[in-house]
Predict the structure.
Amino acid sequence: MKGVVWTRICSSRRRYFIISAMALLFLTVASANCRSESLQSALARAYYANPDLNQSRSKVRAQDEEAPKALAGMRPKASIGANVGGLYGNVYIPFGQGDAAGRRTNFGESYVGKPRGATLNVSQTLFDGGATTNNVRRAESGVFAARASMRLTEQAILQNGATAYMNVLRDTAVVNLRKNNIGVLEQQLKLTQDRFDIGEVTRTDVAQAQSSLAQAKTEYYSAQAQLKNSIANYRQIIGDEPDKLEPARSLEPLLPHTLDEAIEVAIVEHPGVKAAIHQVDAAEMAVKVAEAALAPNFSINAQVSNNYDNFNGLPGSRAFLAGTSAQLNVPLYQGGSEYASIRQAKEQLGQARLNMDLQRDSVRASVVSSYGLLDTAKSSIISSMSAVKAAEIALAGTRAEAKVGQRTTLDVLNAQQALLNARVSLVTAQRDRVVASYSALGAIGRLSANEINLDVQLYDVDRHYDQVKTKWIGVDTPGEK
């Protein structure tokens, strides 16, 4: 009977090793003929369909319209005014010396008219103190800042997408590990019960096996809940349910080799820093625009008008007028609001410069943190692999010693739990390495669809801007292809 029990234990041990080894390699969970979704294809889907990213692109297109709005300052302006109404008149005119009684001869007439007319006004500003030129430059800087902010959103979507993808892989592997652990512990409980039946162990050993099995089921249910949460996040970011996810690789080959080099790249290339720099440029132009309120303004005007029944109230009259004029306006004092606007613009410029320094410090801290997490993940993989190997040897030795009575059932259960924990830690470390590599690439500002070679048609930020920046008229937005 003891031989039969030991044979079962050995069989259970081999089964546990095989199942655990399969679950450990969560990056190759799916077989080659079942792979249907890679991290690259998932991120490509998010690049096209993520609402947050598309909203950011729409915001950039809206900002593009600031350029033609600024150019309008030096473009001609034309308007037509028309009027129509009703007129009733009663004319009473006395004339002559009058008769002997003092009565004079009078002339009277009543009339009804329809005064109406139209006026065409055309004006062209020739000089506005540089307000239009600086407004155009400010608008361009605003467009560049919006583009950089859109890149920040793109980085966040790609990083969050990679995190969601790896979370699903990790949690799927953990669920499988814990599910298989339940099977192993059920077999262990059966073997312990058999040994109890022949008097090799006590009821305490059976209770310990039952307790371990119950705890394993609790951990399995918790892992299932975590997997469902990860699937929900995946659906929110990627836009579809995960199905047969393929292995994912770290982006370490795309990263600078040293931390100092990464910091130098980030301070120059990070979208957050670029956005802050363009905001400083826009603030500088805003100061010049505000100062233009103190400069002379020169324009020419032309007017053409045609009026009927409106000349001294006489019905049937017609008046045609055409003329040009030049207008020079030299501001002397306008209540002081223009001076307040200039001071306010200068303070906002100082604020923009401080924000630029803040962004650089923030980016530097982010690079240091992300590289630290990546190094930690790589070290954790090495230590976790050693822990798994050691736990496998320990479990095998504990089982052998338990066979000759030198170890208890609790020792075997603890060894099994230690091996399970080591494998879960290895799975987590493998996930952390991939996620940390995406985080590090984003920290230096190079996490983009182009940089990681996504199979997508890259969004062209210049296309819409080129279509609208010199547009004079029209209310239809350019179609997006």
Summary: The two ends are 76 Å apart (CA to CA). The CA atoms of residues 328 and 380 lie 75 Å apart.
